[in-house]
Amino acid sequence: LYVNSGSAIVSGGSLMLSGQAGTAIGFCFKYPSFMMHASVLSGAAVSGQFFIYSLVKEYGALILACCMNLRQVISILVSYILYVHPISFMQVLGLGLVFGALFYKTYDGYANPKPKASKVADGVQPQEIGKASDAEAGKPGPQE
Q1: What is the pTM of this model?
Q2: Gap between the Cα atoms of 37 and 39, Å rounded
């Protein structure tokens, strides 16, 4: 929400400062279907962001990377089929190498997870808010 709101403010400010706000609004009135198409595109972008954040929150970044790789492969293959684009052997080889490496990296990260680094240093415990440490309370510490 904040990113989209910030983007709208920056875009609106840019239009105002460049003096093109009137031209942009005129364009919207001249081509009313533009506003409908822009709204649908914006709705799709917002829903995409929602699904990305939900996927990362529920399953982690590794599953997101796997889903994004699969989406790209499917998108490219559907484009070749739908628009009857000719595909050469070298293109197939390139797609296989690139996406094979991406899938392997994702699989390797999933199969061999790295241990997470501890946020607390060895032997040091987090201090409660408002509680004085031993040195501040006048108690002798380990160095005394």
Answers
A1: 0.52
A2: 5
- List, in sequence order, the alpha helices (H) in 1-138: 2-18, 21-30, 32-59, 61-82, 89-111
pLDDT digit string (tens) for the chain, length 144 residues = 677 788 889 999 999 999 999 999 999 999 999 999 999 998 998 898 899 989 899 988 878 887 888 888 889 889 989 998 888 899 889 888 988 887 788 788 778 887 766 555 555 666 666 555 555 555 555 554
What single letter denotes the amino acid at residue 135? Answer: A
Q: How far apart are CA 114 and CA 64, in angstroms?
A: 17
What is the maximal distance between C-alpha atoms in the chain?
A: 81
